[in-house]
Amino acid sequence: MSGAGGPDRFDSxxxxxxxxxxxxxxxxxxxxxxxxxxxxxxxxxxxxPLPDLPAPEPLVLEHRVLKSLLGAWALAACxxxxxxxxxxxxGGCGTCAEEALRLRDAxxxxxxxxxxxxxxxxxxxxxxxxxxxRPARIPVPSWATPYDAETARLDAxxxxxxxxxxxxxxxxxxxxxxxxxxxxxxxxxxxxxxxSVDGLVARAxxxxxxxxxxxxxxxxxxxARTEALWQASHFPPTRAVRAPWREQAHELIRTVxxxxxxxxxxxxxxxxxISYGDFTLPLRDAMADxxxxxxxxxxxxADAVDxxxxxxxxxxxxRMIDLAARMLPDALxxxxxxxxxxxxxxxxxxxxxxxxxxxxxxxxxxxxxxGADEVAHVALDGxxxxxxxxxxxxxxxxxxxxxxxxxxxxSVLTATAGLSRM
Length: 422
What we know:
By secondary structure, this protein is α+β, with helices and mostly antiparallel strands. The chain folds into three domains: 59-109; 138-304, dinb family like domain (Four Helix Bundle (Hemerythrin (Met), subunit A)); 314-417, 2-Layer Sandwich (Nonspecific Lipid-transfer Protein, Chain A). Helices cover 44% and strands 12% of the residues. It contains 15 helices and eight strands. The chain has helices at 43-46, 63-68, 70-74, 80-90, 94-110, 122-133, 145-158, 163-166, 187-204, 222-232, 242-258, 283-304, 314-339, 382-389, 406-417, and strands at 169-176, 179-186, 273-275, 280-282, 346-353, 358-363, 373-381, 400-404. A four-stranded mixed beta sheet has the order 6-5-7-8. A two-stranded antiparallel sheet has the order 1-2. The chain has a two-stranded antiparallel sheet with strand order 3-4. A hairpin with a 4-residue loop joins strand 3 (273-275) and strand 4. Helix 12 (283-304) packs across helix 13 (314-339). The longest helix is centred in the last third of the chain and has 26 residues, at 314-339. The radius of gyration is 38 Å and the shape is elongated. It starts with 42 loop residues before the first helix and ends in a 5-residue tail after the last helix.
């Protein structure tokens, strides 16, 4: 199958046969000189001095061009040569130097420093977003959400505490009458205190009492319960108290959520009486009270370890302020009975400013507010009012704006501080 004197068309063909001699070696053989040259050695490997390279010529730019580069220079977007030219120009041009300073300050506002800590309200916002798309089958009652949020925030604060932080000293402060009292404990002791007082709600809901068995008498108040729990421990409380506190808080939230849909209304489980020893609160108010105390003591703990702690969400703060305002008439009546004084037919307008605030008419007469005259007006910031109600601020030092009857004003401020307890 081959032509005369020509190769067979089916014989194998090697393209190197058509290459000139020398590419693969003499005659195109595979064993000739290497096709790819070896890498050249670097000057740095020879030990000889490096050659002196001429310095790059500085850019010579007109003033208007340099001025137009100031924005890019402030954003660090210039080339090295352009940046050098701009900086050299700023040393001799005061107008451009002032403009460059203003631009650098503006760039700083675009990159504001942010805390590396997560927003304490992030959990609440994420849950709210999730629930708005897919409502929970068993939602938490609205009056229990402040307690849910504040226990979650305190738990996040405690999460990374070491042994040293758990034993940091904390001083609890409260008022009895006109006298401020205090009790020294530790961070772990504060959590044990929260366990003991939250146990009042747990017992009323049929859950285990942290002080039992045997269950303590119902007449035992928050302070006595706390002392009993501290004394029952063989050793001072340690970080081990966090687990039972978390479990108790979760169990309380689960129980009130599963109790039934009537809890949102005026009756049902939301009105279950919770005894505090010398007074009683309905469950919906007791949960706001427990949220308030959780926030206050979380602030005490944060102060002990030198850590910032934010106020609750405005709608949660409003529930706490509203509870304190509604408890003031009874507190005032108790003070009047002790002093054999009756402030008949008088009202005080309490204005709490800021997020979560509002206005309340406080009857100074225990018989009621009908037909009474407004004799004074007090205005406080929301957080300041809560600090006063927690016994953290002396009544005489409360940052309050006021007009009217000074005796009525001081009586209300003192009664507000008297709402505090251990």
